[in-house]
Each structure stands twice: as C-alpha cells, then as structure tokens.
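Q: I'm writing a short methods note and want an example of a predicted protein-small molecule complex. Could you take the sequence and the SMILES for 2-acetamido-2-deoxy-beta-D-glucopyranose and return the bound structure as tokens? Please keep the output block clean; save any remarks for afterwards.
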Amino acid sequence: MSCSFKFNIIFILHILAATPILSSPDNSSFNNFLDSAKTPEVFNWMVSIRRKIHENPELGYQEFETSEVIRSELHKLGIPYKHPVAITGVVAFVGTGFSPFVALRADMDALPMQEMVEWEHKSRVPGKMHACGHDAHVSMLLGAAKILKQHEKKIQGTVVLVFQPAEEGGGGAKKILDQGALENVTAIFGLHIDPELPIGEVASRAGPIMAGSGFFEAKISGKGGHAAIPQQSIDPILAASNVIISLQHIVSHEADPLDSQVVTIAKFQGGSAFNVIPDYVTIGGTFRAFSNQSFNQLRQRIEQVIIGQAAVHRCNATVDFLEDWEPFNPPTVNNEDLHEHFVNVAVNMLGVDKVDSAMTPFMGAEDFSFYQEVIPGYFFMLGVRNASHKQFESVLHSPYLEINEDGLSYGAALHASLAASYLLKHQQDLHGVERKTHDEL
Ligand SMILES: *[C@@H]1O[C@H](CO)[C@@H](O)[C@H](O)[C@H]1NC(C)=O
Ligand SMILES: *[C@@H]1O[C@H](CO)[C@@H](O)[C@H](O)[C@H]1NC(C)=O
Ligand SMILES: *[C@@H]1O[C@H](CO)[C@@H](O)[C@H](O)[C@H]1NC(C)=O
Ligand SMILES: *[C@@H]1O[C@H](CO)[C@@H](O)[C@H](O)[C@H]1NC(C)=O
Ligand SMILES: *[C@@H]1O[C@H](CO)[C@@H](O)[C@H](O)[C@H]1NC(C)=O
Ligand SMILES: [Zn+2]
Ligand SMILES: [Zn+2]
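A: Understood, no commentary inside the block.
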C-alpha cells in the first residue's frame, strides 16, 4: 500500500511537470461566467425566481416555501443537497465531492414591514417584505449553481452552496455552523446588494467592514403616584432620562475617538396619563463596535451605567442583553488573502474602475461574521442601483426599496467565479505540497 502510494506521487509529479496547464493558473474559462449569467436562459430564470420569492416573503426560520422553491430548482438542475439544515436551510454541492471545499452563502429571510412600492410583483403578504434584498441573494446563488453545474467538469474541488435562514435576527449563520454543515470548508464568500452602488460595480475592503452588534433592554423601576405630589413617588421617567444622557458619555468620553462605536436608545416606554407617575419605564437599544474588546467594554459599561444612574434616582434597574432572542453579531472582518483573490476575480470580470477595494466600513452588522470566526471569509457589496429611482428610496430596510434586476447576472457570475478560481488555486497548492514533500524525501 505505502509502496504504490509513493509510486502514485511520483507519477503525479511527472504529469505535473509535463502539463503546464496544471502548474500555471488557467482561469480564462471562469471569466466567461458573466456572459453565461447574462444569457436569457440564466438571467430570465433568476429574475422569475427573485420575483416569486419577492411576492411571498417569509420571516426568519419560517422560510418554508422559499426553501421549497430552492430545492425544487436544485432538483431540476440535478444538484444534490442536504435539508433541513437549521430548520429551513439548504446546503447544496457542485463539483467533485472531494476537497478542497469552498462555500458560497445566501440568506433567505424577509423583514416584518409593509411594502410601499406599487408594482406587479409587490409582496402579497401584508406586513412582510423583502426589503433587504435577500430574495435577490437567493436567486443569484441559484444562478451561480446553474453556471457552476454547466462547468462542473472543470471544477477542481467542491462548491458548497449555503441557503441560510434568519439573518435579520435569530442567528441563522450560527445555527448552520452548529449543525456541522461547513465541515472541511476552507473559505466562504458572501455578498449583499447595495442599492446605492451602480450596476456592474462592487465594493469591499480587507479587515473590518461591518461592526459587531448587540441589543439591550432595561427596566427601570421606581414607585408610581400622583404627579402633583412627586415627593411621595420615586420617578422612573426622570431616572430613565438621566440614564439615557449618561449612556451617551460612554462613546463620547470613554471610547477611543479613532475607534468607531455606537450606543443608541431606540425605545423608551413608560407612563399613560398626564397626571400619574408610572411604576416603571422600559428603555432599549443597540450598541456597535469593530472589535471584541470594544464591544465587550460597551456591554459592561452599558449595564453599569444603567444600574448606577438609576440608583442615583433611588430606582432599581435590570438589564437584559436578549442573547437568547438574538445572539451578538461579531464584527464582519474580511480575510486579507481572500481580499486579494476577490480583487483579482472582480477586476478581471468588471474592470479596475468598477472595483472599490477600499470601501469605508459602516456600523451595520451581518451574521456572515459567525462564519468568519471559524472559516476565512469574505463579504462584499454588489451594485443594484436603478438610475430611475429617487435617492431617498434607495436604501436597505426601506418600504420603498427597489432593485435593478440587471445586477443579478453580476452577483451570480462573481459567486461562481470566486469559488471556481479559488478551488483551482488551492488544488494547485495541494499539488505544490506534494511536490515539496517529495523534494524533502
Ligand atoms: C486569472 O488570470 C489572469 C491572467 O490570465 C491573472 O492575472 C489573474 O491573477 C488570474 N486570477 C486568479 C484569481 O487566479
Ligand atoms: C472532513 O475531514 C475529515 C477529517 O479529514 C474527514 O473524516 C471527513 O470525511 C471530511 N468530510 C467531508 C464531508 O469530506
Ligand atoms: C429596589 O430593590 C430593593 C431590594 O430588593 C427594594 O428594597 C427596594 O424597595 C427597591 N426599590 C424600588 C424603587 O423598587
Ligand atoms: C470574539 O469573541 C468571540 C466570542 O467570544 C470569539 O469566538 C472570537 O474568537 C473572538 N474574536 C477575536 C478576534 O478575538
Ligand atoms: C428601474 O425602475 C423602473 C421604475 O421603477 C422600472 O420600471 C425598471 O424596470 C427598473 N429597471 C430595472 C432594470 O430593474
Ligand atoms: Zn437587513
Ligand atoms: Zn441583508
């Protein structure tokens, strides 16, 4: 056994020496993916899937029909998959079935808000809308699956397609990982539509690109009574007001001014009459930072300030960081090597002036970061601006969000090309290792 093994390695090395195609990257065929993605066969199909999902938005962990659409299309393409993964998730495979493994991820969930755009494919579910473009993400990943399947013989490893539930709260990415679905995957790519970026353009950066985020809710308890006799009450409204002011000092005077952080109170509930001091007040909000250290520091100080400042006003406070409902999102941090890979692929496909490789980070959050904690990962923004739309409508989480569907071809082609060329490169690395080992013998 060991004898024939040695023979095999030597044999492979001979082949490697004789065929330069394996030792110098020939990625030219993967650059045609954009043409494939623009053919009516692929483009119209992606558009129809996107519209179908747009009409029937489903919230986190309820993406049953979306998941069904995905599986039925995969089935038609002859692509094997695992289901259910994390309740509604689907994990599909294109390629050899052997290492190296590279993953591509799309999220599937919608938001609990009413669509305000009047068009033929408007959401048919009152109070639910794909206002973060996850309908487009799903159709682009299916587009990539279709293109990769067309070129399956040239794929030098396995592409793992991850259709993930519950990005907008609920920690879908974490659940996918907990199920071991990404075992042996050595890199993962994800994208997000950007309605402010023109078609055919992409933006990203190496290192931190989005913040870590957490939520909190606090109950500040006093003693209710007649508003005209405050000395007989302990006023939680006054206490909560001071708590909110004090919380602002954490970012303004405890954080490094060069280390971006946010603490926002977005909820303040208390009282029901003009002449009654209530028993308690509830406040809540979000906090953001770009490093674990700053994030943990914020968490600790938010709790201390709320409890301490409430006590100044003789109130008691409890603070809940709601981690059961929504686990903290770590910061989204792009791997440096994958950044280089992304820039190569994107510049080859789109041209150097269409690739912003030094995008300004922002304080939004993405649960893609959970993958990046265990696998080198890379996240980028994809242009879907529709020139005919007014600027104020063109934002994610807006009830007026519209996207330029021409962007779907670019997303699908980039997904496919990032994965296929990654595998090609790493397959060669594997051979490189064998060669080196042999040289040492
Ligand atoms: C693809 O090939 C071109 C030259 O043919 C090369 O410049 C580029 O770096 C390659 N891209 C990747 C991702 O290997
Ligand atoms: C992942 O790697 C482990 C250890 O090398 C191996 O036992 C397992 O079969 C691999 N899983 C897949 C899906 O290839
Ligand atoms: C705060 O908690 C202490 C200890 O449980 C209790 O004695 C006190 O009455 C509470 N004060 C308010 C304002 O709820
Ligand atoms: C950040 O904290 C998380 C959770 O405690 C941990 O898994 C992760 O490795 C930390 N990341 C860094 C860069 O320290
Ligand atoms: C851009 O928006 C206009 C107006 O809503 C719409 O008619 C058009 O189809 C959109 N273009 C694309 C390519 O989606
Ligand atoms: Zn969103
Ligand atoms: Zn989103």
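A: Remarks, as requested: The chain has twelve helices and 16 strands. The chain has two domains: 2-210+331-436, 212-320.
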